[in-house]
Amino acid sequence: MLKLFSWRRSAHQTLTLSSNVSFHLTHTPILSISRFLSQSQFEDPYDPPFSPTSKTLKLNNETTKKNRNHSKNKKNKKNKSHEEASSDSKNSQTFPLKSDLPFDFKYSYSETNSSVEPIGFREPPRFSPFGPGRLDRKWTGTCAPAEGDYDSEKIAGERNAVLGEPLSEEEVAELVERYRHSDCNVGVTHNMIEDIHSHWKRAEAVRIKCLGVPTLDMDNVCFHLEDKSGGKIIYRHINILLLYRGRNYDPKKRPVIPLMLWKPYAPIYPKLVKHVADGLTFEATKEMRNRGLNSPALMKLSRNGVYVNVVDRLREAFQTEEVVRLDCAHVFTSDFKKIGVKLRDLVPCVPILFKDDQIILWRGKKTLDDDSSSLAEPTSQNVV
């Protein structure tokens, strides 16, 4: 406003002048106001001709302050509620935790074999993944064994009481249609049990999708899921499972499941591939390895794929061939040994080489009659 009105005369000066020029001076303010309006509308559209009143500014400032204070109060209330909830949860949990689950706590239940003892550890066994002083069980480096004796009949009776009467075909079909499209992908690990029970709070069944190495033996996965969680598998299609919690399941009476705070380092096990295979000489083992590398690949395994039919394909191939090659160029390097161990026990066969993302398997010294009898046994078990 100073730039526009610095050259004008004030209204007080027009009143002090003589009457001869009063008419002329009384019209000059009107001309100056009209000139000011015309300049303010066209030259600078962002500069209004009249400044806003102080009342509107005060009202706007008061409203902004009220909104800020309201948002701050909301944040403070939320923080207080979270702090109270965390304090209540901390007060409710007394360490060390005591769990009545009748099995040994491991990081992975389906991918470990308790019959094979490790020859070393990559970290001291005294460091428990459950945290110091948080569990009443002692960590041995591979598991936290359950202490005391458990009555298997009593445990089975309690589980049957939670499951209730068997579901009818209509009820199973209804649950499958309701939960088969839900996304709940969990791994077969210890913390997976806690995830399942947390899903059972708001859903009767949990959809589990298995990928990678566990899909080589889906029967083992189903057994551990039912044994560790206490539920019942009511639907199974290739690698997709539906785990039912039971008719009489009460989330308030769920078991105490201590969580692992970090993934423990895998212990050191004996070598899977020997320098000379059992039953062969050094030259024969070398010849088998070269033959396997030069043979066409039976299958190409993908990363995090579904390996349900790998065992059956290998059993069929070993009826006519002595050495088989699996192409694992797109598989994680950490999964090579796991796949070899699984196939050695399931087929069975002998891994003789892991090289250049390839797995060479030898069927071992067996006659075709032994192979045909071994193939007939698992099919009869699957039918039953």
TrEMBL record:
GO CC annotation, single: ribonucleoprotein complex
GO process annotations (BP): Group II intron splicing; mRNA processing
Positions of the UniProt region annotated as Disordered: 44-95
N-terminal signal peptide: none
Domain CRM: 153-256, 278-374
Gene3D superfamilies, sorted: YhbY-like (3.30.110.60)
Domain of life: Eukaryota
Biased composition annotated in UniProt, kind: Basic residues: 66-80
Keyword Ribonucleoprotein applies: yes
Pfam family, any one: CRS1_YhbY
Keyword Repeat: yes
Bias (Low complexity) ranges: 53-62
GO-annotated molecular function: RNA binding
Keywords tagged on the record: mRNA processing, mRNA splicing, Repeat, Ribonucleoprotein, RNA-binding, Transit peptide
Alphabetical list of InterPro entries matching this protein: CAF1P_plant (IPR044599), RNA-binding_CRM (IPR001890), YhbY-like_sf (IPR035920)
Protein name stated in the entry: RNA-binding CRS1 / YhbY (CRM) domain-containing protein
